[in-house]
Amino acid sequence: MISLRPRRIRVVCWASAAVLVVVFALVATSLHGPTGDGYGSFQRGDQLAMVGLGIFGALGILIFTRPRVEADARGVRVRNLIGSYELPWEVVRGVRFDRGAPWASLELHDDDLLPIIALQAADKELAVDGVRALRRLHQAHLARITESTPNR
């Protein structure tokens, strides 16, 4: 069983989310007194709303840490930003990681390409090792099919 997640994007997203919350918290602490020439003034609720906006923004950034791919002898499970897929190896024709592509993909027998955002080119060797591991599992599945097919 292999389980892979992107590394670089997770680090960037967690750092960005933390910075966003801190910036919005600092802005919230500076909101006090009158709003300028107008008749309004900043209240405690305005400060809390700014912190809340920072937290919601951080959660939006953290969605990019969601991608994952898990595979075993039975099949492959891909979780992308939106949507998850569980596929048996029987429907997979191959694992592709084309030159210049931002991430790997599964080539299916119905000529569809399913992106695997968890294996990103930005992760360099981690992504290459992940693609190789998926290809080994796929090849093992093909070998099992060949062994179980009677020779004529």
Rg from alpha-carbon coordinates:
23 Å
**Count of DSSP H/I helices:** 3
How many E strands? 9
User: What fold name stands as the CATH topology of the largest domain?
Assistant: PH-domain like
Low-confidence stretches are none
Outline, from the CA principal axes? Answer: rod-shaped
What's the name of the CATH homologous superfamily of the largest domain?
Pleckstrin-homology domain (PH domain)/Phosphotyrosine-binding domain (PTB)
Global mean pLDDT: 91
Fraction of residues in β-strands: 25-35%
What oligomerization state is this entry in? single chain
What does this molecule look like?
Keywords: Membrane, Transmembrane, Transmembrane helix. The chain crosses the membrane at residues 12-28, 48-65. Pfam families: bPH_6 (PF10756). Residues 66-136 form the Low molecular weight protein antigen 6 PH domain. InterPro entries: CFP-6_PH. There is one protein chain. The chain is of the alpha+beta class and 152 residues long. It has 2 domains: 2-65; 68-148, PH-domain like (Roll), CATH 2.30.29.30. 43% of the residues lie in helices and 26% in strands. The protein has 3 helices and 9 strands. It has helices at residues 8-30, 44-62, 125-148; strands at 2-4, 33-34, 41-42, 68-71, 75-79, 84-88, 92-96, 103-108, 113-120. A 4-stranded antiparallel β-sheet has the order 1-4-5-6, with helices on one face. Strands 7-8-9 form a 3-stranded antiparallel β-sheet. A hairpin with a 4-residue loop joins strand 8 and strand 9 (113-120). The radius of gyration is 23 Å and the shape is rod-shaped. The two termini are 34 Å apart. 20% of the residues are buried. The mean pLDDT is 91.
